[in-house]
Specification:
Distance between the termini: 65 Å
Radius of gyration: 19 Å
Strand order of the largest sheet: 1-2-3
Largest sheet: 3 strands, mixed
Number of strands: 3
Shape: elongated
């Protein structure tokens, strides 16, 4: 009996997972160099470029008219460490593209070189603005 109860629970858990997952036509990882050779202005420029591209009407038209009508996208910065700045999200409309673009604008530098403490870099970035 316990076996059937366990089997039923596993079956139901699989159904819940299947309902929350969504297929994407493309899984896109956007990467940016955040090492010490990149200053705060250059990092902001990289983020702004990705944000503008994701909200561009031609890009959105291509996404919406693709086979699945969407893309899964994440944004990662790297230096000595790697940091996911924007978690995976589905972009399938101007609204979701703007949500992604807004998420890029918010957080400070996430990745730093070993020689530079990330907290110090964030303080210096806030001081310079």
């Amino acid at each position: 009996m316990r076996f059937f109860a366990l089997l039923f629970c596993l079956f139901m858990a699989g159904q819940v997972v299947a309902q929350t997952q969504r297929e994407a036509g493309l899984e896109l990882v956007l990467l940016a160099d955040a090492s010490g050779s990149i200053d705060a202005e250059e990092l902001a420029f990289q983020r702004q470029g990705y944000a503008l591209a994701m909200t561009d009407p031609q890009v959105l038209s291509a996404i919406e008219n693709s086979l699945y009508g969407n893309v899964a996208v994440t944004y990662v910065e790297w230096a000595s460490n790697t940091a996911v700045v924007v978690e995976w999200m589905i972009v399938d409309s101007m609204s979701s593209a703007k949500t992604f673009a807004d998420a890029l604008a918010g957080p400070p530098r996430q990745a730093c070189d070993v020689a530079v403490n990330c907290k110090t870099a964030a303080v210096l970035q806030n001081f310079s603005t």
